[in-house]
Amino acid sequence: MRDFVAEKVKNIPPSGIRAFFELVIGMKDVISLGVGEPDFHTPWHISEAAIYAIEKGATSYTSNLGLLELREMIALYLENHFKVTYNPKQEILITVGASEAMDLAFRAILNPGDEVIILEPSYVAYCPLVTLAGGVPVTVSTIRGTTFALDFDAIRAAITTKTKALFINYPSNPTGKSFSYEELDKLAHLAREHDLVVVSDEIYAELTYDYQHVSFSSLPGMHERTILISGFSKAFAMTGWRIGYAAAPHDIIEAMMKIHQYAILCAPIAGQIAAIEAIKCGDKEMRFMKKEYDRRRKVIVSGFNKMGLPCATPEGAFYVFPSIQRLPFKSEEFCRKLLTEENVATVPGTAFGSAGEGFIRCSYATGMDDIKEALRRIDSFLERHGLSCTEQAAG
Amino acid sequence: MDKDNLKKEILDILTKDARKTAADIAVMLNLKEDIVSASIHEMENDKTILNYKAVVNLQQLKSDKTHCIIEVKCSPQRGVGFDAIARRIYKFPEVKSLYLMSGGYDLLLLVEGDTMKDIGFFVAEKLATLDSVHNTSTHFLLKRYKEDGIILETQEKTPRLAVTP
Ligand SMILES: Cc1ncc(COP(=O)(O)O)c(C=O)c1O
């Protein structure tokens, strides 16, 4: 028999996260800082609205673009929160999670061999999706010592005549970094100069602490060259409902819709109805969750820094990305040891690209008590290995 | 953070978990510990914070205590409104909480007694006989579902995957 699996799929490396997931399965009493989804349940009024709709018989397909009411609410929301204007009839597409929106975006814009600049460390899906869409991912590291400032010379150097798109994600999974206005402005400048389309994954926009998120398409001249991607999974604790969206100029949404209508048909109706409730009435509960994340963020940042594992204060999302460069372990080895010796699950930075070596990703979408216990265990791990901050200094 | 906001933040944390120490709270808010403890002391002194208590699942305790709520209709008195009658009522130790209400009755009492008989005695002998009380309506509590924001039934937890992207 022939080998039926396509080469381009075979060549995609297995996800580093998957490998860790397999390790954790079957272990008991693990405290996991490895989870990329909220620990809160979907607020009850949201679930209840969907249950009610199902009872009323809302169990059919919707229009390919998604329920008009939801698109209208999203348009209103984007206008009110980020001052960006999209026509709900033509420029917004409801997708199965932000994940599908990314897949559609790459498939809609890439010709074979087109290059996409991706800033690493980055969420695990981007590079494989670009490859599967026939494009070529070109990664640029954002690691500068123990922080994540952009190096525009490096980005510039990565741009070739084949570069079609720039992919950005802020606040970022895994680093929690968001871009300053200067950085956004410079990125916009690059996009204009090299005539690039910018795919901007802003799914964590609502989970931005201390300051207001600036949407990339609100920058001068960027509306017409941006595909804005977001969704309900994170801010409203709705990962399982699978609702995301893309907002972009009409011709791009039309192209994405073409793929979507054949591959997916429409996003699930119950999820769309839940999303309407979330966007209409979910603000209070969302802010409650955000406040909780904010407190945990402060606890976890301070915890890592105290242990001498430098940890930048993340501007958004629910991840910290502390540096373990001073330890005699690679990221992967450190995470394995921590898991087997202390029952704490974290994700090696290398799961997010080779640029993540020397870092680990810890999610604070986990209860405060668990976070504290995990920090305590990490501390005792360092002590047992003679790697505590103070011992280091003494040695 | 201004003083009032600081108090709000601290109370928000303490009303969820009264065992959080000033040091814990200071880290959560990214503030100095002495600022937080000063604010807590201030609120203890001015009686913003009355007490720190455990929220108990009485169902679990198999407590044989009996609880009821009593609606009371009574007439307000000139000059003092309902305050005088309220004062008479809240001094009874079996009255755990007392509120003035809008709507079909005036005072709402949460009452605890050792037995149903005790409560019957309290209502018949003490409460209904007060001069300005016209009418009482006693409802016995049969089952607790949620206490102080906490759902008491053990809920099945759908576990999250341990590691996700
Ligand atoms: C940066 C980022 N984008 C997209 C997603 C996927 O979101 P969705 O659930 O909407 O598909 C995630 C989920 O972890 C994420 O972290």
From TrEMBL, chain A:
Its EC number is 2.6.1.-. InterPro entries: Aminotransferase_I/II_large (IPR004839), AspAT/PAT-like (IPR050596), NHTrfase_class1_PyrdxlP-BS (IPR004838), PyrdxlP-dep_Trfase (IPR015424), PyrdxlP-dep_Trfase_major (IPR015421), PyrdxlP-dep_Trfase_small (IPR015422). Signal peptide: none annotated. It is an enzyme of class 2 (transferase). Gene3D superfamilies: Aspartate Aminotransferase, domain 1 (3.90.1150.10), Type I PLP-dependent aspartate aminotransferase-like (Major domain) (3.40.640.10). Its cofactor is pyridoxal 5'-phosphate. One of its GO terms (biological process) is amino acid metabolic process. Keywords: Aminotransferase, Pyridoxal phosphate, Transferase. The keyword Transferase applies. GO terms for molecular function: pyridoxal phosphate binding; transaminase activity. This is Aminotransferase.
Automatic annotation (TrEMBL), chain B:
Residues 70-143 form the Transcription regulator AsnC/Lrp ligand binding domain. SMART domains: HTH_ASNC. This is Lrp/AsnC family transcriptional regulator. It holds the Pfam family AsnC_trans_reg. InterPro entries: Dimeric_a/b-barrel (IPR011008), HTH-Siroheme_Decarb (IPR050684), Tscrpt_reg_AsnC-like (IPR019888), Tscrpt_reg_AsnC/Lrp_C (IPR019887), WH-like_DNA-bd_sf (IPR036388), WH_DNA-bd_sf (IPR036390).
